[in-house]
Amino acid sequence: MHNVVLLAAPDSALAQALAVRNLPDIHLQVYAPAAVPEEVLAEAEVIVGAPDHIVPLVRGAQRLRWVQSTWAGVTPLLQNGEPPYQLTALKAVFGDVMSEYVLGWLLALERRVLVHSRSKRWLTGRESSVRGKRMGIMGTGSIGTVVAQRANAFGIECVGLNRDGRTVSGFERCYATSDRLSFATGLDYLVGLMPHTPDTDALVDAVLLAQLAPTAIFINAGRANAVSHGDLVSALEDGRLRAAVLDVLPDEPLSSSDPLWSVENLHITSHTAAPTADAMIVDVFADNYQRYVSGQPLAHLVDFARGY
């Protein structure tokens, strides 16, 4: 039997969904993160949970061999170098919901949906369209690829930014992060879906923003470290950027007194871009558990050297 500890409320939908999967040779124990008994932790072979909940527990998990994150991001678990266990992230499940978020906002802004819905008078003027626009997506992994494919269906041309400029399906062209300014030149839309690593710090700064088309829209739903927020606010206030949508911020939840709330044409969406359904977590874990017990390589392994 394999000792698996799920960090969740015992009566949660996630715990119930995993229990009914009837995975082979599994001894599943469910505890709230702060309530795992020392003796249970000492015998845990696998831990499933949010990275920030797992960090305080790994020292006491002497037999730990595998951690399955319930988040796409795993930054809290990367702080102390490569550990003796395998770490897998929650991937290949967020593409559809992220596409809804990105395209929903672009359509709303281009078609002035919010302006019309809030107006108390009849508005005239021609609405613009997303068709024929050029979108740059920073991050060409499983999420960015699906966003590009969905955007292509709307007639949006997509280019990508990744670590080495490798070609990825769905993108007309991909650029290396070292060539970020060429990537940004003339973009109508810039979408941030980058992981949090030292190499992605402040990729979106005043220099990059200056390369965008004069009426560009910026959406960041990746990680907050990729953006110089002071430069972003300046671009909005100077009219060099039409609008920005931020789903992720350096400090969350963002204080109600933070001046970002009052920046004109800046929309903050409180880390809601890609909601995680319990079924997604269970499906990813169940697939990897079958791989684990049969000795196959795990899917979505995190490379600690790269940080994702």
From TrEMBL:
<dbReference type="InterPro" id="IPR006140">
    <property type="entry name" value="D-isomer_DH_NAD-bd"/>
</dbReference>
<feature type="domain" description="D-isomer specific 2-hydroxyacid dehydrogenase NAD-binding">
    <location>
        <begin position="117"/>
        <end position="273"/>
    </location>
</feature>
<keyword id="KW-0520">NAD</keyword>
<dbReference type="InterPro" id="IPR036291">
    <property type="entry name" value="NAD(P)-bd_dom_sf"/>
</dbReference>
<keyword id="KW-0560">Oxidoreductase</keyword>
<dbReference type="Pfam" id="PF02826">
    <property type="entry name" value="2-Hacid_dh_C"/>
</dbReference>
<dbReference type="GO" id="GO:0051287">
    <property type="term" value="F:NAD binding"/>
</dbReference>
<dbReference type="GO" id="GO:0016491">
    <property type="term" value="F:oxidoreductase activity"/>
</dbReference>
<protein>
    <submittedName>
        <fullName>2-hydroxyacid dehydrogenase</fullName>
    </submittedName>
</protein>
